[in-house]
Amino acid sequence: MENDPNFGDFFEEGMEEETEMLIQYLVDMGAAEWDGMDEYGERMYKFNMPVLFKVMPKLYDEIMADIDETMMDLYKQDLIEIEYNENLEALFKLGDKAKEILNDMGIGYLINNDPDQ
Predict the structure, then answer these.
(1) Which end of the chain has fewer CB atoms at under 10 Å, N or C?
(2) Which residues are within 8 A (CB) of 16 and not within 5 positions of it... i.e. 6 or more apart?
(3) Domain housing 34
């Protein structure tokens, strides 16, 4: 598979076979792994973000932009707090409602920094 194809094309109507090929490619490369089914019976996958960055940087960038936008929306709703450490790195404190929203979106695992969860 071509490195970093235009992944948006894979998710258009009538592109089911190509979508399956893309997902299998990401799984084969170690950039994604199966994570169960959602309430509609659709398969869910988790991304290994460091590997995804190497395999498909454009997809990585789009996911990170979506996460940034989501985090800002949650911040504007006072559902998260942002603190900065001595290196001026942002640290997020998520409330239960924010965690629920992120989990419902299927991206809670990307934000969760609690090793016990």
Answers:
(1) C
(2) none
(3) 7-110
